[in-house]
Design the sequence.
């Protein structure tokens, strides 16, 4: 039995275009419409009963595409989104993209086939153009794609400045930074915030900034190497909590006491930070509020209601525990 993807392939158009033709919603050129209708006829495509019943109605379902469900930050975010959506009468379909553009695109196609009413996305690989072509409401969370698309984030640069200044106030004078991936806006902003505080310092060296990928194991490896090369380092600002926990492990493996000989601070405020030894000092994002706002904004858009703004930037706060 032919699927919507088969029709799209046969007509050499996207699944979103086929969906627009089927729903008779949004712009489709006359030529393209003809091609899609011919493909539907040639392949004898019949949308299933569930989809048929959704054609003119809302499915009361939203898609949530997250980049890495192994990172505890994202399940915590998903929890808030699901709670809020559920209270407002919507079901959430969770998709894990593994930061892979093709996988994200496949999930988008599947969500369109399921006639979701809207999608919440955290991605640094999906293009603005792709989102615009979906023709259903989309809200970006945590990772900014374009200021034109409704987006929910925190003030990353300010948080990074707070973290780095805090290490200085603690008397640390050789502070390193484990940055997040180069292609993620929030990782770049956190790195800029760190630079703003340390670049004027005599002790600052470019090699105090090392690349991480927001994952714990990689952070342990890069921090071990950093400490071998720069034994003078006495403070680390990691761009997220999982990397900070990886850095604590590296410090212990290198024979350093945290916080006596080296202070470590993270960013996120995940619950796991309270379970590490020592407990992690961090820049806490209002995780629940972020998820709640994303769900509320998306559902307003689905209902055709006005939203106050497209760019929601929340404040962060420093939570001092034992790693500093
Ligand atoms: O821990 C995951 C990180 O990726 C977080 O800091 C979050 O802001 C994200 O982009």
Sequence:
């Amino acid at each position: 039995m032919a699927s919507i993807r088969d029709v799209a392939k046969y007509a050499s158009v996207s699944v979103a275009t086929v969906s627009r033709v089927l729903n008779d919603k949004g712009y489709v050129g006359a030529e393209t419409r003809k091609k899609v209708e011919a493909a539907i006829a040639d392949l004898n495509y019949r949308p299933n009963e569930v989809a048929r019943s959704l054609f003119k109605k809302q499915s009361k379902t939203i898609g949530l595409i997250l980049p890495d469900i192994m990172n505890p930050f994202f399940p915590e975010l998903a929890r808030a989104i699901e709670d809020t959506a559920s209270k407002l009468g919507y079901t959430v379909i969770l998709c894990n993209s593994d930061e892979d553009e093709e996988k994200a695109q496949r999930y988008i196609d599947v969500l369109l086939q399921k006639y979701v009413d809207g999608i919440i996305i955290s991605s640094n690989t999906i293009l603005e153009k792709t989102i615009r072509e979906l023709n259903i409401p989309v809200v970006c969370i945590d990772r900014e794609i374009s200021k034109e698309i409704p987006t929910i984030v925190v003030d990353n640069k300010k948080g990074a400045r707070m973290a780095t200044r805090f290490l200085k106030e603690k008397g640390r004078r050789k502070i390193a930074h484990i940055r997040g991936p180069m292609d993620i806006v929030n990782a770049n902003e956190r790195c800029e915030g760190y630079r703003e505080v340390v670049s004027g310092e005599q002790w600052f060296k470019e090699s105090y900034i090392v690349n991480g990928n927001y994952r714990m194991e990689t952070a342990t490896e890069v921090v071990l190497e950093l400490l071998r090369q720069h034994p003078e380092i006495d403070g680390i600002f990691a761009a997220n909590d999982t990397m900070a926990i990886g850095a604590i492990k590296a410090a212990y493996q290198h024979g350093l006491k945290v916080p006596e000989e080296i202070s470590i601070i993270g960013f996120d405020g995940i619950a796991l930070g309270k379970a590490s030894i020592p407990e992690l000092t961090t820049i806490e994002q209002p995780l629940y509020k972020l998820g709640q706002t994303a769900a509320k904004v998306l559902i307003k858009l689905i209902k055709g209601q006005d939203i106050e703004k497209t760019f929601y930037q929340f404040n962060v706060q420093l939570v001092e525990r034992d790693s500093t």
Q: What stands out?
A: The mean pLDDT is 93.
